[in-house]
Amino acid sequence: ARSDDVDDQFSGRANGGRVPLGLKTKRLRVLVTGGAGFVGSHLVDRLMERGDSVIVVDNFFTGRKENVVHHLGNPRFELIRHDVVEPILLEVDQIYHLACPASPVHYKFNPTNVVGTLNMLGLAKRIGARFLLTSTSEVYGDPLQHPQVETYWGNVNPIGVRSCYDEGKRTAETLTMDYHRGAGIEVRIARIFNTYGPRMCIDDGRVVSNFVAQALRKEPLTVYGDGKQTRSFQYVSDLVEGLMRLMEGEHVGPFNLGNPSEFTMLELAKVVQEVIDPNAKIEFRPNTEDDPHKRKPDITKAQQLLDWEPVVSLRKGLPLMVTDFKHRIFGNPREDTG
Ligand code: NAD
Ligand code: UDP
Ligand code: UDP
Asked: Which of 22, 120, 181, 186 has the smallest number of CB atoms closer than 10 Å to its CB?
């Protein structure tokens, strides 16, 4: 097939290692680890739309084949079941490294952030690919500075229940910068703030998915603690735009990618009531340990250097995930994953 020929020329296999200049701009080969997950699958959609050749590596720990099923059969798309904790040999131009058990229910005891990131950096080094790490606002811990600027070093408990995630991502950032400085690989770091949208895991315990699923199931919305803690919620298409601008741009980062509109959990519950069910009840539950009190990104750096800012408000974005959640909760004849 024609696409295969082009791929071979890119990797240099077709002409004894000489990559023809100029060809690279025609079609990029992009690896998305965690590409069957929530954010990853939306990113894959955009890359496929752009005409790239996309390889997804995912162990389906929290991701689902359904999220990328619409690309199966396309010669530019490849899906590999693989755990990034194990080494892998591939030839690509860019690596978006998203693989990570991203919710408190899933991330405990998992070395993906450290060992998986090391392997993907080793891969990037061997093939000279550009590497983008999806880090998290959790690197700021329970922040003593508000809103959080990229230069803030954070307030993280190294031995708490959330530590393997926070500290895992902090270590992943360190490894990324070490490979950049030591091995000269091109890297990009995104610090992602709370993101929501279609294809979010329904039962992984995050607040937006919990509230939306609860409202649809006519169950009470579970507000933890007094509900006065804040978060800033970003719609997934805004994040994907930011990730792609970061990858294509010239700046290493780290960059905060998030929506600066801040809501308390009680305010979020009110928006969910407005959008889905005005009769939904609110039920208070004890909060989890080490829950950050406030979180809101300062996105000045991304605005200035990436010319990026979110455009979808919570009231516009929430309804966009309701159709997908309804289908997945109550059954869906058309298998439409949104
Ligand atoms: P997700 O759970 O939907 O996606 C993660 C994907 O990685 C899943 O498909 C999962 O199966 C896969 N995966 C996990 N461990 C793996 C392993 N060892 N090998 C191969 N694949 C593996 O979560 P998401 O929300 O899409 O998050 C994507 C990335 O963005 C993560 O790195 C996460 O830390 C980061 N992030 C997300 C948010 C958010 O609000 N969604 C916030 C901050 C950071
Ligand atoms: N690695 C990989 N694919 C590659 C190259 C490396 O998975 O194409 C893994 C490799 O197995 C190692 C990690 O990446 O565990 C770091 O590789 P690097 O070459 O930087 O370190 P070294 O192997 O020299 O310790
Ligand atoms: N939360 C809540 N009800 C829920 C789930 C979470 O009130 O059903 C709260 C949680 O205590 C936290 C906030 O919502 O203060 C965001 O939690 P999430 O797990 O979504 O994201 P993170 O804590 O990682 O920002």
From this structure: 22
pLDDT digits (tens, 9 = 90+) for 76-93: 999 999 999 999 999 999
Mark the ranges of the chain whose per-residue pLDDT is less than 50. Answer: 1-24, 335-338
CB 114 within 8 A of CB 99: no
- Residue 52 and residue 29 in contact, taking contact as beta carbons nearer than 8 Å: yes
What distance in angstroms lies between residue 206's CA and the mean position of ligand 3's atoms?
6
What are 21-27's contacts with CB under 8 Å, separation 24+? 24/93, 27/3, 27/51, 27/52, 27/53, 27/76
**Ligand nearest to C-alpha 224:** 3
> Pocket around ligand 2: residues whose beta carbon is below 6 Å from it?
87-89, 118-119, 122-123, 125-126
Question: Which of 100, 106, 206, 256 most suits a substitution to test ligand 3, by most atoms within 8 Å of the C-beta?
Answer: 206
pTM as predicted? 0.91
Whether the CB-CB separation of 152 and 292 falls below 8 Å is answered with no
Secondary structure of residue 131 in the 3-state scheme: strand
**H/E segment holding residue 230:** strand 230-232
